[in-house]
Amino acid sequence: MSKRVGILTGGGDCPGLNAVIRGLLYKATKKYGWEVQGIKYGWKGAVQGITMDINLQNTEDIVREGGTILKSSRTNPYKIEGGVDAVVETMKKLKLDALVAIGGEDTCGVASKLYRDRGINVIGVPKTIDNDLSGTDVTFGFDTCVNIATDLIDNLHTTAKSHERVLVCEVMGRHAGWIASYAGIAGNADYILVPEEEVNVDEMCAVVKKAYECQEYAIVVAAEGARLAGIDVTKNAELDAFGHVQLGGIGERLAKIIEEKTGCETRSTVLGHVQRGGRPSAYDRVLGTRLGCKAADMIEAKEWGKMAAIHGLETVAVPLELAVGSLKTLDMRIHEDSKHFFGANKLHCPA
Ligand code: F6P
């Protein structure tokens, strides 16, 4: 039976979103013969009924493009008066049989509630550079982000070496240290700070100083959500529509502390949104495509209230509640392994 399927992308964009849009659209159209309706600006578009026509022609080559052709917002319909009713109304007006919400913890959280509270036929697709969604092995966007960050950390090595400086590199990731850990290991950092482990600044400075004495420079990678014992690094206590504080500023803070405590000239670099932009890696294009195709199959199977996830090589349907119930923080075995390569432990450094 023919169906009409709505699709939206919410929250922070990431490379691979367009691959999902194309994957879903192609399978829905070519295999199942359904119509797909793009909804612009995430939940904002669902509340206000803002649409965009997508078809086989205008999505044919988008797999290579970063960002999202549907655009995004951090709108939370549950924080807008009448917002949830408006989403239900939009579904009716557009005659949608199903809605695919591609997003992170927040977007999928709204999808999960809409299914539970209003029985909306919703399917989620997890995305985020932060890689912090439960229920899936990995999220697309993360691989591209880590590759960008690693390249940029490589660049920091050469300038740090020339000027004999300590360079602190702040990366994104919110309250999970996946990006910092992976980019830090791949970029051969002398110290990596992740939110999962509070850092004692004196101990950190001792390691950095040793690395500096040995190499005549040092590289520190810090997750934006890193925590320093006894020091408040909150940048802006104001919360967004999903209750998140705005992170950032740890790199600059750390640079000051390191310079003061080690006497080594120290600068900081915030990678910021360059980590989230640009073309998706091949891995993220493939993962996004497969999850888009899986979402179409899930609609056919009426697996409402679930999200398309990747477990090993299998695409599977997992309850949205599971994905948004708890944050998938860094597996600390990875962080422990990285410590063997922290400054003072490097082979050529005297113990
Ligand atoms: O969740 C993705 C993310 O890039 C986080 O790593 C970062 O803290 C946040 O979004 C930044 O949000 P915004 O783009 O709204 O500044």
Fraction in beta strands: 15-25%
Q: Report the uncertain regions.
A: none
| Widest sheet, order of strands | 3-2-1-4-5-12-13
User: Rounded to an integer, what's the Rg over CA atoms?
Assistant: 22 Å
CATH fold node name of the largest domain? Rossmann fold
- Report the count of strand segments: 13
Which cofactor or ligand species appear? Answer: 6-O-phosphono-beta-D-fructofuranose
Portion in helices: 25-40%
Please describe what this structure looks like:
- With 351 residues, the protein is α/β, with parallel strands linked by helices.
- It has two domains: 4-140 and 280-325, 3-Layer(aba) Sandwich (Rossmann fold); 146-275, Phosphofructokinase domain (Rossmann fold, 3-Layer(aba) Sandwich), CATH 3.40.50.
- It contains eleven helices and 13 strands.
- The chain is elongated, with a radius of gyration of 22 Å.
- Bound molecules: 6-O-phosphono-beta-D-fructofuranose.
- Residues 12, 104, 128-130, 172-174, 224, 247, 276 line the site of 6-O-phosphono-beta-D-fructofuranose (F6P).
Write the layout of secondary structure elements.
Elements: E1 4-9, H1 17-31, E2 35-39, H2 42-48, E3 51-53, H3 83-93, E4 98-103, H4 105-118, E5 122-126, H5 142-163, E6 166-171, H6 178-186, E7 191-193, H7 201-215, E8 218-223, E9 236-239, E10 245-246, H8 250-262, E11 266-270, H9 282-300, E12 306-311, E13 314-319, H10 320-325, H11 332-338
Parallel strand pairs: 1-2, 1-4, 4-5, 5-12, 6-8, 6-11, 7-8
Antiparallel strand pairs: 2-3, 9-10, 12-13
Helix pairs in contact: 1-9, 2-3, 5-6, 7-8
6-O-phosphono-beta-D-fructofuranose (F6P) binds next to loops.
